[in-house]
Amino acid sequence: MASYKIEVVESSPISVLGEGPHWDIERQSLYYIDIYGTNQSISRYDYNESKTYNAKIPGHPVISFIIPVDGTKDQFLVGAEKKLIIIEWDGKSNEAKAVKVVGEVELDMEENRFNDAKCDPFGRFYGGTMRLELVHDIFEKRLGTLYRYTKNEQFVPIKRNVGISNGLTWNEKTNKFYFIDSVDLDVKEFDYDPTTGNLSNERVVVDFKINGERPNFVPDGMTIDSDGNLYVTTFGAWKIFKINPNTNTIELEIKMPCEQVTSAAFGGPNLDILYVTTASQERATKQPPPSGRLFRITGLGKGTPMKSVKLN
What we know:
By secondary structure, the protein is mainly β. The protein has strands spanning 5-8, 18-24, 29-34, 42-46, 51-55, 63-68, 75-80, 83-88, 97-104, 112-119, 125-131, 144-150, 154-162, 165-171, 176-181, 186-192, 199-207, 218-224, 230-235, 239-244, 249-255, 261-267, 273-278, 295-298.
């Protein structure tokens, strides 16, 4: 029986829709975002100081991810609606500055936005889009696309007809890529070509549907540990699933103190703390405290290093 411990990160703000945790080894900090945040859009939890710094990005109210730019001290790639933009932030000020638009997708699709995004083991950007969930039923149409972006290739669509492009992670040892389209209600595995970044041989690892019916949640963000186990967060189920993709089984259900569990990333000096973002959106039900806070879970094992984005 796994003995894990869940704690609220005391300095963390209450996020409306906390998401996209990225552990930066160099700065020993967890960066994450609040997509519809009224008080903050981006946050940095400083491990050594046990303090969280929060900022807005003037002109960009909806931010969907934050990834450090490789080789810089204060530059980050963020998703702003359908744009990739570079911001400058010292990690402490309450405002960050947008300095450059890297690119934009889906100019003809007004009701789409970027959602989750990460970098592969070589620093290539992978990120996907979705139809605005505040306006529409997410199960109605599949208008999203998963993209790869590099300076040479620009935007390459690698999976179309996506409902909500969500959790993504890589197993560097086995050259596998894992992906969640929340609308599919499953986790998919692909063969991943490290040379090109291309994906092939899609298969379902775990299907969350119950006798073909929708469960009371959607799978959301995801990360991987050093043994290749996946940690899948659930929006609506109060839990995180630890999944073994070799046996296609759920090995552990981590019960959380809030309903809307959005994403997770291993961090800390030894990569053995699972940081978990949550939301406090009052949709069908009230979301009492500690909903929307950042959590730390210890006793689960070790993660793998996350990569900064290489834009050159």
